[in-house]
Amino acid sequence: MSSRLEGKVVLITGGGSGIGQATAIELAKLGAHLAITDVNLEGAHDTYRLCGGKPHYCGVMDVSSKADVELRVSEIVAGLGRLDHVFNCAGINPTSYPLTDTTDEYWDKLVNVNLKGIYLVTRATIPHITTPGGSYVNVSSICGLYPQAEQAVYCATKHGVIGFSKSMALELGLKGVRTNVVAPGYIDTPTNSGVVKGEEYVTRMEEGNSLGRLGTPEEVAGVVAFLMSEKAKYMNGSVVEVHGGLKMLES
Ligand code: NAP
């Protein structure tokens, strides 16, 4: 069984930064042909370049827009021929707010990107995953399993991702398409600043971690690549936690 993804066509959302970008680079090394998308076209272009350019594809796609998703998915399939795997990575990291300070706009933004975005992309791509061994990897978070105070909206979206994905696994498993979830802990990415704010906070998180440090995007990317590979062909509906051993989860 191979860990390679030679010639496999993989759509990545949120591929212009952080975990999505690191995963694109990892999958390109494993031989995949990528459709790198992001709401931030400049970021997507950077990733495209870091992956070596052609045969990959790069384009803007806002996962919260049905029209955008449907248009871009048909363009990708027309260009790359089909889809084998989808990495639903686009998301907004949390900002800590007491519930009474949380705005409707914040709710709409997080729900529309983190949760509805996965729904829209999944619905649009299902008809195009037609070859055996296809799969989805959806990004949740440790907050999708272990709630944090003052992050109710983010926690709700990331719990939702897990429920949605487990149902997907049951429905699409019958067609031979697997769905798994990656649930990262605190990963050092550019826009995680809503949580990782300042030295003191970072130190507190490092001290609360059994490995004594934050994770890197590359350490999540390796797990995503494994979940897509043939080596994980009996994994379906699994939630893989990638957090280095958070001490607060011990009790
Ligand atoms: P990141 O560096 O901010 O990357 C996310 C990318 O998604 C950005 O390029 C962002 O563009 C893009 N994006 C935002 N809204 C979008 C939309 N509507 N449509 C398409 N793309 C959109 O974040 P990250 O830390 O790598 O996080 C990636 C995923 O992992 C997210 O779902 C996040 O919730 C999850 N996660 C992260 C951590 C962590 O510690 N970093 C932990 C657990 C889970 P802009 O920069 O222009 O907004």
TrEMBL record:
Q: Which GO terms describe its molecular function?
A: oxidoreductase activity, acting on the CH-OH group of donors, NAD or NADP as acceptor; quinone binding
Q: Which PROSITE patterns match?
A: ADH_SHORT
Q: Which domain of life is it from?
A: Eukaryota
Key word Ligase present in the record? no
Q: Name one GO biological process term.
A: fatty acid biosynthetic process
Q: Look up keyword Cytoplasm and say if it applies.
A: no
Any Pfam family matching the protein: adh_short_C2
Q: Which UniProt keywords apply?
A: NADP, Oxidoreductase
Under the heading SUPFAM superfamilies, the entry gives: NAD(P)-binding Rossmann-fold domains
Enumerate the InterPro entries for this protein: NAD(P)-bd_dom_sf, Sc_DH/Rdtase_CS, SDR_fam
Per the similarity annotation, which family is this? Answer: Belongs to the short-chain dehydrogenases/reductases (SDR) family.
Please report the name of this protein according to its UniProt entry: NAD(P)-binding protein
